[in-house]
Amino acid sequence: MAGRGKLIAVIGDEDTCTGFLLGGIGELNKNRKPNFLVVEKDTNINCGIFLARIDIGIILINQFIAEMIRHAIDAHMQSIPAVLEIPSKEHPYDASKDSILRRAKGMFSADDFR
C-alpha cells in the first residue's frame, strides 16, 4: 500500500450505506470484498473484517450499531483504521456513548483549552 491512499469503510443501516455509496466510497479489494456492510435485523456484525484490512484507513459506523459491538470497538487501540461513530436518520448522535471521544477527552485537561 506504499504510495497509495486508504479507503473509508462504512458499517451502517441501508440509508447510511446508500448515501456514502452514492458519494463514491464503494470499492472492492483484490479479493472482491466490499468496503461497506449494510446492517439489518439478522446481520452478524463483525467489524473485524475491516479492522484487519490494510487498505482501510477509516471505519465509519452508525452509533446505534457501535453500541451492539461496543466491546470490540473499545478493544481497538490502533490509530489506523480509525473508528468513527456517526448518527443515522433514526438514531441521533450521543457524544456520551462515543468511546473515541471519551478517550480524546481523557487526554486533555481544562487548562489545555485556555
TrEMBL record:
A GO cellular component annotation in the UniProt record: proton-transporting V-type ATPase, V1 domain
Native source organism of the sequence: Monopterus albus
Keywords on record: Hydrogen ion transport, Ion transport, Transport
A Pfam family recorded for this sequence: ATP-synt_F
Protein's UniProt keywords contain Transport: yes
Keyword Transmembrane helix (UniProt): no
A molecular function GO annotation: proton-transporting ATPase activity, rotational mechanism
Protein name: V-type proton ATPase subunit F
Domain of life per record: Eukaryota
InterPro entries, per the entry: ATPase_V1-cplx_f_g_su, ATPase_V1-cplx_fsu_euk, ATPase_V1_fsu_sf
